[in-house]
């Protein structure tokens, strides 16, 4: 397959998944009805369901899935470890703790929660980094992952404690949020996420070539023209912004950032100019699919989408660990 | 002068003693200079000073007439190609992708490589005799092939200088000779300033125009191999008795065994 047809196939897949996800739900709609509703010409109820409920939810799931995948691909090059992703590096945990703290303390409002999550994510990655360089001045990627898991667990424990002492009705919705869910998706949350994510995504794409070089190792990257220290600061910051925005709106959704980049790596190779947009499209499509499964599998009950991605992601993670442990 | 140091010194934080001590040196286009010395004598530190990775504590380092540390990495990468000691890509790469990385200092952040970029890659692949393996994965290459690919990548940078740190470590005789012949030819044919760091004195003597002998951070001797390689200097530097035997007018060093030392 040539490069152009690969993009067409991936783009078409994403579009079909999105249309199908718009059609499924408590009110079953045909694809024709979905199309009419999108154009605003169909049945009034259908228009309302599609335009007010399902469309923002599908778009949000797509954007967040794509952003988490791109963040995962970036972190993998940055720490030179194929098992890195925002969840395993503790970024999601830190962001979640920041968001929970902001919600409990009633600071920030809808726009401020992502900012609090960003503070949490930055603290988490700084701590993880500090743990990893403690043995000499060289960063040990394996210790880095261990540090990420430890910091993530610690953040989860603190979040658990906060929820345990919170009033009962808030706990139920907080737990659902924590496990990852798009059930509160709206045009407003889509707008907030978009506002936080668009510039970081553009920055990451513009750094596709330096990311290729970083994957060679810092020394080689430097001699091929990368300003390594500046690059690392920008990339960690941008990865934290994307993770924080995603976590504060849809909770902690693991493994998308790990699994999706690998699928693209296997299909298209490892150069980031193809990897980043490929991971974005596939990650978006997969998240929309996972959310559709979460909504419909046990309808009218809704599974947290983070549960669905973990059910898919953990077995894939085990396969990847065994492959790279050799 | 491509590289120039004037009384340059460096000391690592929290390490006693200077890693590089008062080194004055200049390397012109078209000459291959070997930096030799025992392990820990400051060869790699001197190289990092030349490449602007470390800032000197005293003295100055100039690259093409400008302070080495003042160059932007991207601009310096268009001027100096480096084959560093170790490199392990984190993800699988094909040979042609790896060599294309050499064009990155010339490319903008977006858009595809243009015709002359691809032509430069093609030329570098052919020049380093790795064109026939352009589609191979790097993990499947032999040590000698991988080094030639890295030299091709440095060449694709279209540099004025080529710097190699122990490029033949772990290579067998044939691959070692192939790599060094290639380096010497590139320096001569393309008029590059070549810097070769190695602890193989004998190989350096046969390939380079000038040798810098480092000991405890200082440049103990600088000059043509036949001037510099003398028993006294070498025994002092390597702290082992040696004999010298000329080959084609170039001295070759033969470290003596213990029983030979008693006889002489």
Description:
The complex is a heterodimer of chains A (326) and B (264). With 326 residues, chain A is mainly α. Chain A is 78% helix and 0% strand. Chain A has a single domain (3-325), classed as ABC transporter involved in vitamin B12 uptake, BtuC, CATH 1.10.3470. Chain A has 14 helices and no strands. In chain A, helix 1 (3-23) crosses helix 2 (31-39), helix 5 crosses helix 6 and helix 8 runs antiparallel to helix 11. The mean pLDDT of chain A is 87. With 264 residues, chain B is an alpha/beta fold. In chain B, helix 5 runs parallel beside helix 6 (173-190). Chain B is globular and about 65 Å long. Chain B starts with a strand and ends with a helix. The model of chain B has no long low-confidence stretch (mean pLDDT 93). Classes of the chains: A mainly alpha (326), B alpha/beta (264). The interface between A and B is medium-sized, with 28 and 31 residues.
Computed CA radius of gyration of chain B, to the nearest angstrom: 19 Å
What is the CATH homologous superfamily assignment of the largest domain in chain B? P-loop containing nucleotide triphosphate hydrolases
Quantity of strands of chain A, as a count: 0
| Residues in β-strands, percent of chain A | under 5%
Any idea of the CATH class of chain A?
Mainly Alpha
CATH architecture level-2 label of chain A: Orthogonal Bundle
**Distance between the amino and carboxyl termini of chain B:** 44 Å
Q: Please tell me how large the radius of gyration of chain A is.
A: 20 Å
Helix-strand pattern of chain A:
HHHHHHHHHHHHHH
Name of the level-1 CATH class of the largest domain in chain B: Alpha Beta
Q: Biggest protein-protein interface?
A: A-B, 28 and 31 residues
Poorly predicted runs of chain A = none
The overall average pLDDT of chain A, rounded, is: 87
- CATH fold node name of the largest domain in chain B: Rossmann fold
Oligomer: heterodimer
Q: Indicate the CATH architecture of the largest domain in chain B.
A: 3-Layer(aba) Sandwich
Number of helices of chain A: 14
Low-confidence stretches of chain B: none
Number of strands of chain B: 12
């Amino acid at each position: 397959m040539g490069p152009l047809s690969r993009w067409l196939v991936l783009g078409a897949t994403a579009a079909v998944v999105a249309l199908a996800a718009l059609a499924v739900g408590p009110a079953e709609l045909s694809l024709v009805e979905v199309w009419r509703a999108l154009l605003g010409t169909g049945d009034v109820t259908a228009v309302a369901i599609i335009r007010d409920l399902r469309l923002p939810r599908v778009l949000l799931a797509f954007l967040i899935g794509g952003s988490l995948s791109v963040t995962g691909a970036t972190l993998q090059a940055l720490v030179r470890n194929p098992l890195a992703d925002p969840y395993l590096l503790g970024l999601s945990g830190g962001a979640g703790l920041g968001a929970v703290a902001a919600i409990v303390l009633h600071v920030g409002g809808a726009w401020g929660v992502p900012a609090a999550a960003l503070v949490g994510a930055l603290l988490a990655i700084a701590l993880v980094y500090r743990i990893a360089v403690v043995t000499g001045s060289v960063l040990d990627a394996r210790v880095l992952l261990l540090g990420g898991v430890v910091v993530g667990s610690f953040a989860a424990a603190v979040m658990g404690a906060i929820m345990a002492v919170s009033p009962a009705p808030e706990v139920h919705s907080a737990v659902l949020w924590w496990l990852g869910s798009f059930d509160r998706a709206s045009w407003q949350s889509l707008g907030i996420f978009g506002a936080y994510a668009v510039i970081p995504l553009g920055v990451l794409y513009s750094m596709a070539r330096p990311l290729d070089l970083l994957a060679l190792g810092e020394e080689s990257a430097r001699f091929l023209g990368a300003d390594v220290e500046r690059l690392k600061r920008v990339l960690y910051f941008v990865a934290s912004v994307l993770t924080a925005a995603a976590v504060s709106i849809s909770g902690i959704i693991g493994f998308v950032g790990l699994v999706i980049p690998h699928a693209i790596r296997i299909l298209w190779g490892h150069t980031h100019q193809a990897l980043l947009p490929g991971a974005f499209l596939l990650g978006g499509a997969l998240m929309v699919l996972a959310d559709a499964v979460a909504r419909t599998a046990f309808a009218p009950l809704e599974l947290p989408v983070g549960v669905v991605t973990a059910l898919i992601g953990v077995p894939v993670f085990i396969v990847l660990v065994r492959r790279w442990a050799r | 002068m491509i590289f120039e140091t004037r009384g340059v010194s460096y000391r690592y934080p929290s390490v006693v003693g200077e890693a590089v001590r008062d080194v004055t040196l200049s390397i012109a286009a078209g000459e291959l200079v070997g930096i030799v010395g025992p392990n820990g004598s400051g060869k790699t530190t001197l190289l990092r000073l030349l490449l602007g990775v470390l800032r000197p504590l005293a003295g100055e380092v100039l690259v093409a007439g400008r302070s080495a540390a003042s160059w932007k990495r991207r601009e310096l990468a268009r001027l100096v190609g480096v084959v560093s000691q170790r490199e392990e890509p984190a993800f699988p790469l094909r040979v042609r992708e790896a060599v294309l990385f050499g064009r990155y200092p010339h490319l903008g952040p977006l858009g595809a490589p243009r015709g002359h970029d691809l032509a430069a890659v093609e030329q570098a692949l052919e020049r380093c005799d790795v064109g026939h393996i352009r589609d191979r994965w790097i993990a499947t290459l032999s040590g000698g092939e991988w080094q030639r690919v890295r030299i091709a990548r440095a060449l694709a940078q279209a540099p004025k200088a080529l710097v190699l740190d122990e490029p033949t470590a772990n290579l067998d005789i044939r691959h070692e000779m192939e790599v060094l012949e290639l380096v010497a030819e590139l320096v001569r044919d393309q008029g590059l300033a070549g810097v070769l760091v190695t602890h193989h004195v004998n190989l350096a003597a046969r390939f380079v125009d000038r040798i810098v002998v480092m000991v405890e951070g200082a440049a103990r001797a600088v000059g043509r191999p036949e001037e510099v390689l003398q028993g006294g200097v070498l025994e002092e530097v390597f702290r082992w008795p040696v004999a010298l035997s000329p080959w084609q007018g170039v001295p070759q060093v033969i470290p003596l065994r213990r029983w030979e030392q008693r006889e002489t």
